[in-house]
Write a structure and sequence with these properties.
By secondary structure, this protein is an all-alpha fold. The chain has 18 helices and no strands. The radius of gyration is 24 Å and the shape is globular.
């Protein structure tokens, strides 16, 4: 009966039918339940800023209940870090993960599986922002922990991170070997397995083998497409793979196929990740790149895409790392001048020299 009454009270509070004073009297456990429910609702609605608010509240309530030096608080900070990484704010993700790792180390929890996951996450995020020194440090820590644990099975995440490091350093054959090894230690058909297959495609693409890269990208997208109840991370990976397929078609001068891939990428990101996600601008960049060879009317199409890019960058600037900001701004200006130039050519062709002079 107590459980039933408690569930009813939580439901009443969630739907805003009780006074604030009553909410303040609720136990921390009940408040965590409320935020957990609202977090799940926010994820379903793809409202990730709200999801972050509720996960942050959950973490703070754990700190209040157990103390800021408790493992449960650290675990919730780690979850918050992952959520920030999914929306593209890698710097904030790394900051919360550093705090979580510090708490785990101070409490002597280095053998806990959550600690190992945090270390592997840090290696992944360092790779994403180009911090190779940090990535190498955390990858070595993860390897050491793996050896100390005595587990015979190698971590596919660690092997994947090592492959990414080698790929960043342009050791493509070394990267390919690590990705193949990671694949052997991953579960076929899983999201992780699909991500590794996609990375193998990246390695082949970097070596100039577009056909083999496309085979792997297609295999990976098919796996992710078949996932039941996909998460934000799976949608993000799916969109990234679609974009990569578009890039390979672009490299092969198959502009119509590239256009279709970039358009699908944009649609997936809009529907499941939202325009606020920084990756959204990348699909717009891809569409701009294929606009000219397809002979699209630049004044109506490419300028519209450019303005969308510009607006999204402005809106999402706070989510980007310093390196990502610089890269995105460079991309925006490169696309802007290319669009101006193409529009000038178009205006010249349709005998509007005055407009062409302005654009040139």
């Amino acid at each position: 009966m107590k459980r039933v009454v408690r569930a009813i009270l939580i439901s009443v509070l969630i739907f805003g039918q009780c006074e604030l004073g009553f909410a303040q009297e609720m136990s921390i456990k009940d408040q965590i339940s409320i935020h957990a429910f609202q977090y799940n609702q926010a994820i379903i609605a793809h409202n990730y800023s709200k999801a972050i608010e509720h996960q942050f509240a959950i973490a703070m309530l754990h700190a209040q209940d157990y103390g800021e030096d408790h493992i449960k608080y650290a675990i919730e900070l780690g979850k918050l870090a992952r959520l920030y990484s999914h929306i593209g704010d890698i710097e904030q993700a790394r900051e919360y993960n550093r705090q979580a790792i510090g708490i785990m180390e101070a409490g002597g929890h280095q053998k806990d599986k959550n600690y190992i996951s945090m270390i592997e996450d840090m290696a992944s995020w360092c790779i994403q922002v180009g911090d190779n020194a940090g990535a190498e440090h955390y990858t070595l820590v993860a390897e050491k922990l793996e050896k100390e644990s005595g587990v015979a099975e190698k971590s596919p995440v660690r092997l994947f991170n090592q492959g990414r490091l080698l790929l960043n350093n342009k050791d493509y054959k070394g990267a390919l070997a690590k990705f193949e090894e990671a694949k052997k230690h991953s579960t076929p058909g899983s999201t992780q397995y699909a991500t590794i297959i996609g990375a193998i495609g990246d390695a082949y693409g970097a070596m100039g083998d577009s056909d083999t890269a496309l085979q792997h990208y297609t295999e990976a997208t098919d796996m992710l497409f078949e996932q039941e109840d996909p998460s934000l991370l799976e949608y993000k990976n799916y969109a990234t793979l679609l974009h990569n397929i578009g890039v390979e078609y672009l490299n092969m001068s198959q502009y119509q196929l590239a256009y279709e891939c970039f358009l699908r990428t944009k649609n997936v990101q809009q529907e499941f990740m939202g325009n606020e996600h920084p990756d959204y601008t990348r699909s717009l960049h891809g569409l701009i790149q294929v606009a000219r060879p397809l002979g699209v009317n630049y004044t109506d199409y490419a300028f519209e895409l450019y303005n969308n890019c510009k607006n999204e960058i402005r809106k999402n600037f706070r989510f980007l790392t310093e390196k990502a900001r610089e890269q995105n701004i460079h991309n925006i200006y490169d696309n802007y001048f290319n669009t101006l130039y193409a529009a000038a050519l178009y205006k010249t062709r349709v005998h509007m020299p005055d407009m062409a002079k302005l654009l040139y």
